[in-house]
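RECORD TYPE: inverse folding
INPUT: structure tokens
STRUCTURE:
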């Protein structure tokens, strides 16, 4: 196991690196109220976090990351603009991969600034890139906002768009919904029989679960309305499929996505933001000609990000998780801001993994 003293020493140096860039060091409690995280992620979070109960404070959760408590702290008391850094333990259950650490040190840098989001994106990426210098990592980038814009602009019902938006971070479920809404997947016979029945509630089946009969009847009516709606057009489906397959260096990816925008013009605003970010990264000295952009990147592990996303990987060690990750989370500030909001972007690093890679390279 990695020497803890070494890890803490590197974490302190990384935090100092961010303090020199203008960040204020902050602390957050290790025990976090579970209610906030459950509201954000739903019950799925229980499978990834350690939850306990307190007679006075209710359900508590060992801190699964720093971003949510830092956002809460800023939205309650922070001035604008603001930059924060932190270092400390986070806790993640690893039931499906017992070889991965369930407790480790995380160091992060967060920017709350509404003046120039593209410049803030580039600032966070470039500072983390500098902190990882010499480790021979592959950087991957993406932008969840492009896919979100594509979904929000589809010529289909609001209910269908809401369903797709909920499952953007679950690619298989998202794909299944697209096939259904596009008329490519046949309706299961049991559902077809239910919707065709004059009185579905009279069908002789047991009522299971916690839904009331009224809620079940409402759900059946929603399914009937969905079945009667026109399918998403083949042009839009093909555009989405092409969008999701884009994986090139940043400038070529933008060029490819501009072609996709001929059929999905709703993504042009998001692509303008990608273009502004490319310019800002170049201004920071980042070689965007060698920087990968994947339109689907971040869809399986970055649930509160809604724009720019990035990660750094040790390609010679595919067994390791990302060494650093980050992205933009404007929507999270709205959710936690009690009516207030501010554009925000940040990233985190794993000093223990950085040391492991350095040692292996000697």
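DESIGNED SEQUENCE:
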């Amino acid at each position: 196991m990695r020497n803890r003293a070494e890890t803490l020493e590197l974490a302190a140096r990384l935090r100092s690196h961010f303090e020199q860039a203008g960040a204020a060091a902050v602390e957050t409690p290790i025990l976090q109220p579970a209610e906030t995280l459950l509201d954000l992620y739903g019950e799925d979070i229980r499978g990834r976090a350690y939850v306990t109960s307190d007679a006075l404070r209710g359900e508590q959760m060992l801190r699964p990351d720093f971003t949510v408590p830092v956002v809460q702290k800023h939205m309650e008391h922070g001035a604008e603009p603001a930059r924060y850094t932190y270092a400390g333990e986070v806790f993640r259950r690893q039931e499906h991969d017992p070889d991965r650490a369930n407790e480790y040190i995380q160091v992060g840098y967060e920017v709350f600034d509404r003046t120039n989001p593209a410049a803030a994106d580039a600032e966070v990426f470039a500072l983390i890139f500098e902190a990882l210098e010499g480790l021979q990592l592959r950087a991957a980038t993406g932008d969840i906002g492009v896919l979100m814009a594509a979904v929000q602009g589809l010529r289909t019902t609001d209910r269908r768009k809401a369903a797709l938006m909920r499952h953007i971070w679950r690619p298989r479920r998202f794909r299944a919904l697209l096939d259904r809404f596009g008329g490519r997947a046949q309706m299961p016979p049991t559902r077809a029989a239910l919707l065709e029945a004059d009185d579905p509630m009279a069908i002789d089946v047991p009522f299971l679960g916690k839904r009331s009969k009224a809620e079940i009847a409402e759900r059946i009516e929603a399914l009937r309305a969905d079945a009667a709606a026109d399918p998403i057009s083949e042009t839009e489906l093909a555009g989405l499929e092409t969008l999701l397959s884009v994986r090139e260096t940043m400038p070529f990816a933008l060029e490819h996505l501009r072609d996709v925008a001929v059929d999905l013009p709703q993504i042009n605003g998001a692509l303008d933001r990608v273009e502004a970010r490319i310019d800002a990264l170049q201004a920071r000295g980042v070689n965007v000609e060698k920087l990968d952009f994947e339109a689907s990147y971040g869809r399986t592990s970055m649930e509160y990000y809604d724009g720019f996303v990035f990660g750094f990987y040790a390609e010679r060690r595919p067994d390791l998780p990302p060494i650093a990750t980050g992205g933009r989370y404007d929507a999270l500030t709205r959710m936690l801001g009690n009516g207030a909001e501010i554009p925000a972007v940040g990233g985190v690093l794993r000093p223990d993994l950085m040391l492991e890679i350095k040692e292996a390279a000697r």
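NOTES: The domain at 4-150+238-361 is CATH 3.30.930.10 (BirA Bifunctional Protein; domain 2).
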